Amino acid sequence: QFQLTESGGGSVQAGGSLRLSCKASGYTYDAYCMGWFRQNPGKEREFVASFDADGEIRYTDSVKGRFTVSKDKAKSTLYLQMNSLTAEDTGIYYCAADGAGCHWVRPDWGQGTQVSVAS
Q1: What is d(CA 116, CA 119) in angstroms, rounded to the nearest whole number?
Q2: pLDDT tens digits, the chain, 119 residues: what are they?
Q3: CA 34 from chain center: how many Å?
Q4: What gap in Å lies between CA 94 and CA 36, rounded to an integer?
Q5: Nearest CA to 92 among 107, 109, 105, 104?
Q6: Among 40, 39, 88, 43, which residue's Cα sits nearest to residue 62?
């Protein structure tokens, strides 16, 4: 049984920082792409960042230069360091895992963690 468990959300002022964590269990960690998505009420879930099985990293344009995705293989954990946060970064952040290549065809999802940024 695959399981993804997020932590690290919270409330911050604009300009602040948060670090999200996603612990993976129940599958071969290195063979998967893992990533972060976010969603607000009434809006579609949107891609934020990914860390592919081969180490390739991708970001959506709006977070480039502010967010950093990383992976600790020993701890089977994916991280998202978020700096210079703005109100537009507010949302529920979901960890996801899918096959190598990050095509997000049938991803597994975590339960989500809330990030709130006050302007």
Answers
A1: 10
A2: 789 999 999 999 999 999 999 999 887 656 789 999 999 989 999 999 999 999 999 999 999 999 999 999 888 899 999 999 999 999 999 999 998 899 999 999 999 999 999 99
A3: 8
A4: 6
A5: 109
A6: 88
